[in-house]
Design a protein that fits this description.
With about 240 residues, this protein is α+β, with helices and mostly antiparallel strands. About 45% of the residues lie in helices and about 15% in strands. It is built from eight helices and five strands. The protein has a three-stranded antiparallel β-sheet with strand order 3-5-4, with helices on both faces. The protein has a two-stranded antiparallel ribbon with strand order 1-2. Helix 1 packs across helix 3 and helix 3 packs across helix 4. The longest helix has about 30 residues.
Length: about 240
């Protein structure tokens, strides 16, 4: 069975990370290899695609995502993928990443290499350390929610009336193409710094900002700014 590939398009950093998340989750759900390779007497080994095959269209960019020049804290899915690539010795910078055979004497072809990668990811996602990281992430989310709730209550309690301006900040498509997550945090730092200089933040009593990642619009920021309602009117003007 053969499947026609879609025309290759370059992904943003956010989209690549999402592709890796999808791949690792799919490996957890299915027990198939990346490609099913049949032996043949003629020496030709026909290849059949599996439920996992479609996740490897952008494998080159997925492998190249991890840049040691910047220190990131990865989700358990991205960490498992990164470790698996290192463990099998996947070659970076090639059109179709490959790795050596078990003896280290010859390179496997691309599809065989992807089968090795899938098996290693499957092993890593089964260890206790991986499962523990999932639990820790859920705990961190709940703890962050508690901290935010306490913070909002404290800010609102300071004044009898509080104006809350909620804004969602997205990047235009032209900027998304080259956008990396560190750029987002740099921009967020500049936005927060404006609170000390820009008159629009006068009478502000507090703020909350959160960087998130979405499939449709990539990296974006959710923000809420609190103002003393005795001094400030016009939430739409503030938001604009």
């Amino acid at each position: 069975m053969t499947t026609t590939r879609n025309t290759y398009t370059r992904l943003t950093q956010s989209e690549i990370a999402i592709q890796i998340e999808r791949l690792v989750k799919a490996i957890e759900q299915h027990d198939t290899p990346a490609f099913r390779i049949r032996s043949s007497r003629s020496g030709y080994e026909p290849v059949e695609e599996t439920k996992l095959s479609r996740y490897f269209v952008h494998i080159r960019e997925m492998v190249d995502l991890f840049d040691d020049r910047c220190e990131y804290s990865y989700s358990e899915h991205l960490q498992a993928f990164k470790e698996a690539c290192q463990d099998v010795g996947l070659e970076r910078g090639t059109a179709e990443p490959v790795c050596l055979n078990e003896k280290g004497t010859a390179y496997l072809d691309h599809r065989q290499s992807m089968n090795v990668l899938v098996e290693r990811i499957r092993q890593l996602t089964g260890v206790r350390r991986y499962r523990r990281k999932k639990v820790d992430r859920r705990y961190q989310v709940r703890e962050q929610e508690r901290v935010i709730t306490d913070y909002v209550d404290a800010v609102v309690d300071r004044y009898s009336r509080t104006l809350i301006v909620r804004v969602d900040l997205y990047y235009r498509s032209a900027a998304q193409a080259r956008l990396r997550v560190e750029h987002v945090f740099d921009d967020l730092d500049r936005l927060i710094g404006e609170r000390e200089r820009n008159a629009i933040f006068e009478h502000e009593t507090g703020y909350i900002c959160s960087v998130e990642q979405g499939e449709d619009r990539g990296y974006h920021v959710h923000a809420a700014f609190f103002f003393n309602c005795h001094e400030v009117r016009g939430d739409i003007y503030k938001a604009q």
